Amino acid sequence: MDVYVCEDDFCSILSGIYDAGTSGRPSREQRLELKGQREPELFCRYLEVQPEKRKAESVMGTVRERISGEACRLLWTASLSGDGEKADWMYRFLVDGFRQGPKIVHMLSLPSVFQMVEYDRAVGNEAHLLTGFVRFARLPEGILAGSIGPKNDVLAIVAEHFEDRLSGENWMLWDEKRDKAAVHQANRETVLLRGIPEDIRRRIKAAGTQDPYGDLWRVFVHTISIKERENRKCQMTHLPLRFREYMTEWQKTPCPPGMDMV
Length: 262
Known about the structure:
α1 crosses α2 and α2 crosses α3. The chain folds into two domains: 124 residues, no CATH class; 117 residues, no CATH class. The chain is built from ten helices and eight strands. It is of the alpha/beta class.
């Protein structure tokens, strides 16, 4: 078994698919893995993939020509998933796709297609939720700053929403888990950066507790709450616990006497 080891990156995964597809070996004797996701196995030959834009563009061009644009979109959203098995599922999807043609995207009975649609659903749902759950706080310099920690790599999708919604503002949205940020300068295009300096990270995390409007927002939210009608199960259905640590109204800070802030 030949195992192509890729970075968790769209270009790297497509380069691995290109290498596997041009190796001349049957697909059943090859698979793709993300680096660090699995322990090495006996009787496997591990091949480290070198990401190349040329290879990635070749794969996408062939997919668009022989399958469809929808298949290209499914590949892109699958690459954003937090699942460690996604690289091999993307490869299996294309193996099936080149056999079946454009109809492949509707063949949900095939495991590879079903998995790709599941990735698409999970990524889309999380990105949609975050457009409502992201909280920005204003830094002393006037820049709006916020942080998220999603399961999937949805920063680019969420940033596209706020690029339109807050086009006239200077803002930064930091993905804490992947240490990457979307930075937007007023009335310009948003850029994605990796490797955020430690002092910037600390300031972003502290922004929600230092902004006076954050205190007003917390007081407002907890004032309008009706304790007798509290339904924790319903709350967790609409607002999963993993989002709350990044939301201003759920951060514990001192509150006015007589007001119980949970």
